[in-house]
Specification:
This protein has 132 residues and is mostly beta strands. It has one domain (5-112): Beta Complex (Metal Binding Protein, Guanine Nucleotide Exchange Factor, Chain A), CATH 2.170.150. 5% of the residues lie in helices and 39% in strands. It has one helix at residues 32-38, and strands spanning 5-9, 16-20, 25-29, 43-49, 53-57, 61-66, 69-73, 80-84, 88-92, 106-108. It has a 7-stranded mixed β-sheet, with helices on one face. Strands 1-2-5 form a 3-stranded antiparallel β-sheet, with no helix packed on it. Bound molecules: zinc ion (ZN) (2 copies).
Length: 132
Amino acid sequence: MTEIIHKASCMCGEIELEATGRPNYAEYCHCKTCQKSSGSSFMVWVVFDKDKVRTIKGQLSLYNSSANLKRGFCGNCGSNMSIHTEKCFDIPIGVLEDPDQIEITQHIWVKRALKHVYLDDGLPKYDEGAPN
Ligand SMILES: [Zn+2]
Ligand SMILES: [Zn+2]
């Protein structure tokens, strides 16, 4: 059986990523850091094991947004491209080539959610990070 390949690229095309297999999960993150870095109300992260994702073109610029977490972006166009933790490589849904095939499964950092954001979609919601 051939594995699913998820391709991702930034706005200018300098960075390309490739993830293999199904993501572990995908979630809305309403945390302040996601709001600041995206300039929007929340981000949607598609979470893969670290060893399932590789950079196939360009080089991510990295920023330590908290102690154990780096955020990757394109140094040329500024697109958000990644979160790097000890175990995972998260890709924002909007840079994927085929985002509609991703099923989003939860909301995290709901205590920071902006008032206009619709949250009654029946998905599990966590005040801070999810227990998983
Ligand atoms: Zn770019
Ligand atoms: Zn966040």
